[in-house]
Amino acid sequence: MSFLSAQGILVFFLLGMVVFSFFSEQFLSQSNIMTVVRQASIIGIIAVGVTVVIIGGNLDLSVGSLLSFSTVLVVDLHDKIGPVNAILLMFALTLLIGAVNGFLIGFMRLNSLIVTLAMLSAIQGLVLIYSGGQNVDIANQQGTWFAFFGRGYVAGIAVPILLFGLLAIVVQVVMSYTGYGRRIFAVGGNPMAAVYSGIRKNWCVFSTYLISAFCVACAALVLGSRVMGSQNNVGQGYELLVLAGIILGGTSLLGGAGSIWKTVIGVLILGFIQNGLLLMGYPYYIQWIVTWVIIILAVWLDLANKRKRLLTTHS
Amino acid sequence: MFKKTALAASIVMMSTATVYAEGPYRIGITQNNVGVDSYQTTYESAFEAAAEANENVEIVVLDAGGDVARQIGQINNLIQQRVDAIIIWPTNGQAVIPAIRQAHKAGIPVVVTNSKIAEAGLEYIAAFSGPDNVQQGASSAEMMCDALDGEGQIVQISGQPGYTTAMERAGGFEERLAELCPGVELLETQPGNWNRERAQRVMEDFLTKYDRIDGVYAGDDNMGVGALNAAKGAGRADEIVFIGATNFAVGYDAIERGEYYGSIYQSPVDDAEAALQTALDVLGGQEVPKMNFFETPKITAEILGEFDRPVF
Amino acid sequence: MTSLKGFFRGKTAIQPIWIFVIAIFIFFSFMSEYFLSLSNITNILVQTSTIGLLALGMTYVMINGNIDLSVGATLGLAASLVVGIQPLGLTVAVLAALAAGIVIGAINGLIVWKTGVNAFIVTLGAMIGVRGLIFLYTQEQSFYATNFAFADFGASTIGPIPVLAIIFLLCTLVMHLVLTRTGHGRNTFAVGGNPEASIDAGIRLGRHMMINFIIVGFFAALAGVLLASQMGAATPNLGRDYELWTITAVVLGGTKLTGGYGSITGTLGGVLAIGILRNGMNMMQVPAFYVLVILGAILISVLIIDKKLNAPSTKEVRI
Asked: ipTM of this model?
């Protein structure tokens, strides 16, 4: 069912691919497709987590800063305490910040947009204080197995893609087939009713921010390993790209609806738009203008398609 | 109550405008965007250290966060605080001119550091101190020409669109390349926003698009190393010459390993100390030339030993 | 106008944020010798007028239950136009810049109206696309007003008060009166509070929303024109991230993101709170890295205080 409701956007997706392939012969080559999916996987991994937050009826704009935080942390600590410890500590601290978000929004019941906007600023400050504003780098880039997460391949498929796929499948299964997933949908769809039916809403909301933070930590692993270094603002602007991908996929910001599958499609569309326009060789500003038009067209067509289906099933 | 304070303030302001204080000097600095990269951060700490070492100087350090409007607000705040001199690292070479003109009108000398302001503003500043970014672009073009023996196809990854340093380096590079090496063709330029990951992504797309790339010019080493990462990932690093600017430690190491052809050596410590010294010279009443460029030599594998590894 | 009793019970939307504004005002007056002077206070007003003008329009759109992320880009476009077209005459340039804002607002509104696509995605697209238009028009160049009269207008004062601050306060007053005293204002609340009921009540929903998008587009352009006159110049990156600060200010002022609730007086408080905090911390020389953390912490504290003060009077479970 969730597969069917994503159909409109999928048709658009395939159409767009065909159009781009007329303009650029490399566009549909296997290596280009792999490149795009690998590039999109960082945004995709984060988007999986944020989709859960949105289904639960909230927003998370702090993911961009949090990505900077986690990436700087794991890269900086890699040489200081070893990769294993660095990864563990990075996950722990990232989840801790997720827990702060979750506490403020789930238990204190504060407005999620403003809390995460405030956290966006605060976390960026923390990153800068931690690093003193310096870039961080991994000294021995050749000899570390840390390279696996961003540059490695398993059975010919890049690890970032595998990680993205794995996370998407696991979270999709959890959301569709477990009691926990149903509770998140209930809380996001009708909070009052959810509370009356005995769902512990506070805990549900809290947990969605832990999932979001966990996904950011995974993305930081890929990003840090791919670049083998990090700037303090590396995640800047990711929050809006992630949201754009999610909305392109057709998940509504109102909560209570949506699916990971849609988000995957949305993120891929975004990635292929950027790549396709770059391959066509337009200057960046033309790329931005075309992105504007495509985003709106895509969502509109999806919406129109849904309406039509609604009409035909009703008559 | 407000009126009185304002009156008092304006009287003090007039007095500083007419009489130059003998020191200790209060110098205000508004920087472009500290924390966005290590160069700017190292600059800031070097500036603070230099001021610390001089007991005749007291500083007010502000950061515009890359936002022109905020920088203009900060210049106004500094005029407000009646500092003896203002050092500005312009977020934009055009837009800060009216604010500089106001400082000038208030009798506060202005020193512009690191990146130039437009011609029209020069009459309002006491001096400029910093690297010559156009010349740096030209030097990179010369290195590219040498490395490719005057023949080849290259791509360019530029800095953040709309920023002076990015435009000057790209302009200097393109102009010099065209006159020196007509045989080297610049296939395409895309912005990497001073961001290594972004540069890596742009380069991956370039590698897909062009079967033959002989050289890459990046607006700084941070982006250059991103491009190198991408080429390594595609197994094409050996056939490509990488040239950057603002030598970062990662770039220095890559030159040492022989993966990176060359860059421009530019020390943020020199940059910061030159700016402070210029301001002090101005305050001390010395004759200071309008344009003070500090040396930013080319750096390649053969002469790597002559340079210390950058601290950033 | 507002009874004191109602004021302390939190029945007016302005209450918590204004108490906060007064508190930080007193705090910074003690902390920095430069803070409490007429020239610094007018300085704050001028510096906040940019985000302030954006926030005025944004308040209307958000009470409607929509949002506009393209305000920063629209501001940038208007600023580039007003400086770039100046050779053709200042009046023409100002009109063209304001018209550009109105057109972008109209496009946003029309798309929201006719397609039913969420305002968030429509304006997120516009935020990217309009920035593209700026770079297309300026070819990456910054413009510098060759005519100093334009910059002098931005720096001019009437008595001791800067003209820009006066324009901002006048706009605030007008927008406050329109929201509280006119049919359009009442409809704005009605549409945001209960769209279905407002359709039944005869409000033409799409057209109404479009008007508010035009209003926010106009104010974004006005802010761009004034900011450009303050700087005597325009840069293609002008206005980046302003949308986030604008939304923050509006929500700090008590406007609900879900629509149907909000006020211009609260928005004014929210804008001033951010402006005073930034200026005061500059004056106290708080290091830039810490400013980010402190701003974030204060925003959250204000939310918590607001929640505590309003807790008994609100029963909603809205998120």
From this structure: 0.82
